[in-house]
């Protein structure tokens, strides 16, 4: 009886040992995560492990789980423009680790691999200071799109050096010193008002031009009609009548010239 009990205990111990070994050799990578294997003998392995259940060698290997989901970080910086005026910039950055770069990140940063996010803050400060120094305050206000483009390009490049993918950069706020911003905003409003006034005047000029064209067309039509009437009247005269009319007109012109010449002669004699 005792011998049978001892055998049962042995079997149970073996089963528990096997179950414990299997459990220690099994690990799970949740969705949105990636694992890097650290081996006691070869160090950090180059391949990365995706989501799902996986096996490893107990005691020899250990999984390091990374969160590779997109994350959001808000950063506010007060820096100086090219003309040394204060610029307040607030960014919202969407980023995630490059999965294939995780072994390299872990080798470089060790167990402080989450400090890549902290390094992103430092890099963002450097980028914002560098970009702001390329523009004066007026250009920062009037050329926001260009400032945004330069900041995005620099952050994407610097992020790749850290093993991070910068999915998007939003400039939530971009302002200069209030005493400078107000005159610039007033000038912008004045420019908008001027453009609206020019558009209104152009519209009125177009309407007047159209009305003038209509009047000119009416006058031309009247002239053509009068010409047609005159031609019709002339067509009703006979050749002899036309000859007689032009003859009388010529005689009158000759008499007019004779009288004028006589008057000029009398003035000269006097």
Automatic annotation (TrEMBL):
Keywords: Membrane, Mitochondrion, Mitochondrion inner membrane, Transmembrane, Transmembrane helix. One of its GO terms (biological process) is mitochondrion organization. Signal peptide: none annotated. It holds the Pfam family Band_7. The chain crosses the membrane at residues 217-239. CDD domains: SPFH_prohibitin (cd03401). It is found in: Mitochondrion inner membrane. InterPro entries: Band_7, Band_7/SPFH_dom_sf, Prohibitin. Gene3D superfamilies: Band 7 domain. Residues 25-188 form the Band domain. The keyword Transmembrane applies. It comes from the Eukaryota. SMART domains: PHB. One of its GO terms (cellular component) is mitochondrial inner membrane. Its main location: mitochondrion. Belongs to the prohibitin family. This is Prohibitin.
């Amino acid at each position: 009886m005792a011998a049978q009990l001892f055998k049962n205990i042995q079997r149970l111990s073996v089963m528990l040992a096997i179950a414990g070994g299997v459990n220690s050799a099994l690990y799970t990578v949740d969705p949105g995560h990636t694992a890097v294997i650290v081996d006691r003998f070869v160090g950090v392995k180059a391949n990365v492990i995706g989501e799902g259940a996986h096996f490893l060698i107990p005691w020899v290997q250990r999984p390091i789980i990374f969160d590779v989901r997109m994350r959001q970080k808000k950063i506010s910086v007060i820096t100086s423009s090219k003309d040394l005026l204060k610029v307040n910039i607030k960014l919202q950055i969407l980023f995630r680790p490059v999965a294939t770069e995780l072994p390299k990140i872990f080798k470089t940063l060790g167990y402080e691999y989450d400090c890549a996010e902290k390094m992103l803050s430092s890099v963002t400060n450097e980028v914002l200071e560098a970009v702001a120094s390329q523009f004066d305050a007026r250009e920062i206000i009037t050329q926001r799109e260009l400032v945004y483009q330069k900041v995005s390009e620099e952050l994407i490049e610097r992020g790749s050096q850290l093993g991070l993918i910068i999915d998007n950069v939003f400039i939530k706020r971009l302002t200069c010193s209030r005493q400078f911003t107000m005159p610039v905003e007033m000038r912008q409003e004045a420019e908008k008002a001027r453009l609206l006034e020019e558009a209104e005047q152009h519209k009125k000029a177009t309407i007047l031009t159209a009305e003038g064209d209509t009047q000119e067309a009416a006058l031309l039509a009247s002239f053509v009609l009068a010409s047609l009437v005159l031609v019709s009247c002339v067509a009703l005269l006979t050749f002899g009548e036309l000859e007689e009319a032009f003859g009388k007109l010529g005689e009158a012109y000759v008499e007019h010239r004779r009288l004028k010449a006589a008057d000029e002669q009398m003035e000269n004699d006097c």
